[in-house]
Amino acid sequence: MKIKCFLFLLMLASINQSYSQTLKSILTETPLKGIGDETELSKKAAKPMTFSYVYSANKSIQNLISIEKSSIDTIYIEKYGNKYETTSTVNRSSSITYFKNFDLKKYKVLFTRNEKDTNVKEILPSFNWKLIDESKTINGYTCKKATTRNTAFNSNQSIVAWYTEDIFINDGPMHYNGLPGFIIQIEIDDNSILTFDKLVFNKENTAIEEPNNSAPELSFSDYLRQGTK
């Protein structure tokens, strides 16, 4: 009887330890395409973005740490013997934060673009994942494949996820979650890849506060309506 009690307590301690920890990592978002041409602007659009990532106590936060700037290029088009000046723009956010609270099923996206703050709060999306019998190693972790269709936030994207069961955290980049393990990599259509690297664990919890900025909280539908005004 004492042995059974000891094994039960050991199991509880193991479970608590798996949840009482912090995971920190670096996430790189790599666009696979520019803006459809071979200009300098297209190369700027294909520049990778780097984020910090922290998971602790059933919350996670992802913050842009690379320096991003909007770019404007002037292009001259010749037509009927006359030259016309046109401009093209890659408009990038100077700050981006993705926040998830799994207990409250809350998801937030905050960003600053052209010195204007935006603060969007929504219910954390769920996904209908299809598990695929295929695996590969990514950054030292054996990962399994899953696919889904992302229709959240007016999207319609084909998603391939690579997750590892070696990490008992059901999270991933941006709003992606819900697989039986941690999502190491996400492939969005043939447009971009998001990959975690340099994963570091700490047995202590790290406090993650819900982020805010100067903008009022908006639902995604209110944010879209605001953009049409």
Secondary structure elements and pairings:
Elements: H1 2-19, E1 22-31, H2 40-45, E2 49-56, E3 59-64, E4 71-79, E5 82-90, E6 95-101, E7 106-113, E8 116-123, E9 130-138, E10 141-150, E11 157-164, E12 182-188, E13 192-202, E14 217-218, H3 220-228
Parallel strand pairs: 8-14
Antiparallel strand pairs: 1-2, 1-13, 2-3, 3-6, 4-5, 6-7, 7-8, 9-10, 10-11, 11-12, 12-13
Give the tags.
229 residues; mainly beta; two-stranded antiparallel ribbon; 3 helices; disordered N terminus; GLPGLI family protein; signal; GLPGLI
Structure description:
Pfam families: PNGase_F-II_N (PF22252). With 229 residues, this protein is mainly beta. It has a single domain (19-228), classed as Clam (outer membrane lipoprotein receptor (LolB), chain A). Helices cover 14% and strands 49% of the residues.
The gist of it:
It comes from Flavobacterium fryxellicola. The chain is mainly beta and 229 residues long. It has three helices and 14 strands.
Low-confidence stretches: 2-19, 70-77, 83-90
Strand ordering within the main sheet? 9-10-11-12-13-1-2-3-6-7-8-14
- The average pLDDT score comes to 82
CATH architecture: Clam
Order of helices and strands: HEHEEEEEEEEEEEEEH
CATH class: Mainly Beta
DSSP helical segment count: 3
**Number of β-strand runs:** 14
Give the domain tally. Answer: 1
Main β sheet profile: 12 strands, mixed
Shape estimate: globular
Terminal Cα separation, in Å?
70 Å
Amount of helix: 10-25%
Strand content: over 45%
> Cα-atom Rg, whole angstroms?
21 Å
CATH topological fold name: outer membrane lipoprotein receptor (LolB), chain A
Which structural class matches the secondary elements?
mainly beta
Signal peptide: 1-20
Keywords: Signal
Pfam families: PNGase_F-II_N
Protein name: GLPGLI family protein
